[in-house]
Amino acid sequence: MGVKILFMTKTTPKFKLSKRLDLIPPYLFARIDEKKAAAKARGVDVINMGIGDPDQPTLQAVVDEMHKAIDDSSTHDYPPYTGTLDYRKACVEWTAKRFGIKEFDPVTECLATIGSKESIHNSFLAFVDPGDYTLIPDPGYPVYNTATIFAGGIPHKMPLLAENDFLPDFDKIPVDIRNKAKMLWLNYPNNPTSATAPLGFFQEAVDFCTKYGIVLCHDQSYSEIYFDNYTSPSVFNAKGAEDIAIEFHSFSKGFNMTGWRIGWVLGNKEAIQALSQVKTNVDSGAFKAIQRAAIAGLNIPQQEITKKNEEVYAVRRNAIMSGLKELGWNFTAPKATMFVWAPIPTSYTSSAEFCEKLLDECGIVVSPGNAFGNVGEGFFRIAMTSEVSRIEEAFKRMKEKNIRFDS
Ligand SMILES: *Cc1c(COP(=O)(O)O)cnc(C)c1O
Fold first, then answer.
1. In CA terms, which of 45, 174, 361, 391 is 20 to 30 Å from 247?
2. Which fold has domain 60-302?
3. Which residues of the chain have pLDDT under 50?
4. How far is the CA of 241 from the centre of ligand 1 (A)?
5. Do the first three CATH levels of 3-57+304-400 and 60-302 match, i.e. the same topology?
6. 219, 220, 283, 367: residue to mutate for ligand 1 pocket, most atoms within 8 A of CB
């Protein structure tokens, strides 16, 4: 806590900081954590529907394998930079089977990551020179924006609008920016909008990136959290994607492993080599014991994982949707992710004002939409990371305070 307060308060040090730090907006969740902590300190029974961190434990098979792997001293030395061959084999096999795509070469077309965040950031260093553009979604995962700035690039925000089903419209990107762009980022199922993308959209993205020579990066953090009869596709289900795309997979959300820091990225060989060149100079690989435990996760039948996720999240989504409906909201329930993306009532001037009201009057933490980009203004994100009883309690409090959607 002390550390965070230190970060939030502007004091003048006796040494010089890099200018780039001034260009980086404060990390959203540090600010929310601080406000939440202050409410808790006031004795408020806070219902946390803010950050997207699964509340369920990691699967037992993974934990069991970790116990064994950590007792084996051969896991204790430096791991191979790109991941153990066993791990990468398990990753390419799992991905091929899950999405019905080609089996990528585990040696040249797949890398172990220390969670997606690290490799998402590092990939910008592999593709972006000062003055280059990146094409990133707004609203979107904040790292696409900050990593562009760290690399000296210029983010071009592609608005995700409700009227376009929260898919970017490539036709709206100015032609000179298309020619100066080095990376295009997509993330479906999407955080924060919870939108999904049809295969035809991925094909459009592949064709666009092929035409302009832009590496297509797909963030698949939520591929294993989906409901009803929906199943999320891979970018590699689109024709020609192997020539232009890489896809970032993570154990964090789908396997309840946010703290373990493990994932993988696979796809086009030259792009993987470029990312590998950055990573070998930045980190020294993921702990071998964790890679072994993660393999145990991939060995669990995939349907079992998604069924478990559906059991946990679908009932919560339904509770959130019916709570919202009772208070006047009316929109389609998400088919994937652990989020509900909802418009704020028109009587509030900003997402921040509405979210502060929820925290101050009801003790409810949700994320203001503008924290994910300017286009997110006017929305708020509810994470399905609380039990149904807590969700019901949250809506009861909103009802008591007469907080409703008013148009
Ligand atoms: C959570 C999240 C990540 C980061 O996942 P880690 O593997 O834990 O680093 C990346 N992208 C999106 C969209 C996320 O929501």
1. 174
2. Aspartate Aminotransferase; domain 2 (3.40.640)
3. 1-7
4. 22
5. no
6. 219
